């Protein structure tokens, strides 16, 4: 399977490391072999080679900060745009791992549409296109007879979309609610242990859970993007950010945490989606709620179904190998759906 990667930051490099380290196992167990033939980045440059780029050399160049360090090879092209790589017509799938833009989803959205129009499968870790234009992308993929998969967009490698769309295919999912942001969950967990909000945030930043500007996490917007994906993908809704009720955890004080504890409750930032709408709000959960026991940077989601009742899935919501593993799982699903060659 020949791949073009848009973006080559933490997640893209994690995915490349998996391909490097598991190539023999993937071939033996799944008959799967992948070649990264193109990589486009905003900061490191762009590389394209139809016979495949050398992954160890690609990773070494990325660690050096620039693809100019990648060695010359026969057939290597430097500086091609995503449009030029797609137009070459040699790739089977586009893997979108560039930074998320939840305002317009650009430039990723246009690149995704171009790839689908060219008959390429689409795998996304970038939440923007799926959150803001799921219905149109899905319709375009179906019209072209290709797949669009986006497991990595909700809980990294924890198989949320697989659970909902495949494992629970015979059920009607009535609602989904969960802890979909590891940064805020870590902060609330530390606050319950006696740390101040400011101290917990600083620690989360030092550990790499929170960005230097944590607004997207602590004010609920990252979780809101995931609510849009769940609502629009699972329930066929057509929601936008303007339709969601979104707030974060910046107003939660040590006194609030103590009051909740005294009442046998625990604060969590809860993201919820139904066919009617969605919200992101800090909520006091009774300790008997399975989401209340999920601490640290871990994510979790509870899906209410008509046949099985509540199903709760708990796992990692971030991490380069975890997210890279979701990309790999999507590519393997695409291969299985294609059947024997």
Textual characterization of the structure:
There is one protein chain. The protein is α/β, with parallel strands linked by helices and 341 residues long. 42% of the residues lie in helices and 20% in strands. The protein is built from 13 helices and 13 strands. The termini are close together. The model has no long low-confidence stretch (mean pLDDT 95).
Q: What about the largest sheet?
A: 7 strands, mixed
**In total, how many beta strands?**
13
For the termini, the CA-CA separation is 12 Å
Average pLDDT, rounded to a whole number, is 95
Sheet with the most strands: spatial strand order = 4-3-2-1-5-6-7
Q: What is the number of helical segments per DSSP (H or I, 4+ residues)? A: 13
Question: Which structural class do you get from the secondary structure elements?
Answer: alpha/beta
Unreliably modeled segments: none
How large is the share of residues in beta strands?
15-25%
Helix content: 40-55%
- If you compute it from the alpha carbons, what radius of gyration comes out, rounded to the nearest whole angstrom? 21 Å
Judging from the principal axes of the Cα atoms, what is the shape? globular
Output the helix-strand order.
Answer: EHEEHEHEHEHEHHEHHHHEHEEEEH
């Amino acid at each position: 399977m020949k791949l073009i990667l848009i973006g080559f930051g933490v997640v893209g490099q994690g995915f490349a490391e998996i391909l490097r380290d598991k190539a023999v196992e993937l071939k033996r167990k799944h008959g799967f072999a992948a070649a990264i033939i193109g990589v486009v980045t905003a900061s490191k440059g762009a590389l394209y080679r139809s016979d495949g780029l050398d992954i160890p050399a690609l990773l070494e160049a990325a660690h050096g900060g620039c693809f100019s360090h990648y060695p010359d090879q026969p057939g290597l092209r430097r500086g091609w745009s995503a449009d030029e790589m797609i137009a070459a017509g040699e790739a089977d799938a586009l893997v979108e791992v560039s930074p998320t833009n939840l305002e317009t989803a650009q430039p990723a959205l246009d690149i995704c549409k171009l790839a689908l129009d060219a008959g390429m499968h689409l795998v996304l870790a970038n939440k923007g296109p799926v959150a803001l234009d799921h219905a149109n992308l899905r319709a375009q993929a179906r019209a072209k007879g290709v797949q669009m998969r986006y497991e990595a967009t909700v809980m990294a490698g924890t198989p949320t979309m697989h659970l909902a769309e495949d494992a629970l295919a015979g059920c009607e999912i009535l609602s989904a609610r969960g802890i979909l942001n590891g940064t805020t969950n870590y902060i609330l967990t530390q606050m319950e242990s006696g740390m101040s909000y400011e101290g917990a945030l600083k620690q989360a930043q030092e550990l790499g859970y929170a960005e230097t500007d944590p607004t997207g996490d602590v004010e609920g917007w990252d979780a809101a993007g995931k609510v849009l994906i769940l609502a629009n993908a699972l329930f066929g809704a057509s929601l936008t950010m303007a339709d969601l009720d979104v707030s974060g955890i910046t107003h939660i004080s040590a006194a609030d945490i103590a009051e909740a504890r005294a009442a046998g409750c625990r604060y969590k930032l809860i993201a919820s989606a139904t066919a009617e709408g969605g919200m992101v709000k800090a909520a006091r959960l009774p300790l008997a709620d399975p989401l209340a026991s999920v601490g640290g940077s871990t994510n979790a989601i509870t899906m209410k179904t008509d046949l099985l009742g509540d199903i709760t899935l708990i796992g990692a919501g971030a991490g380069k190998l975890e997210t890279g593993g979701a990309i790999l799982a999507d590519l393997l699903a695409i291969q299985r759906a294609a059947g024997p060659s």
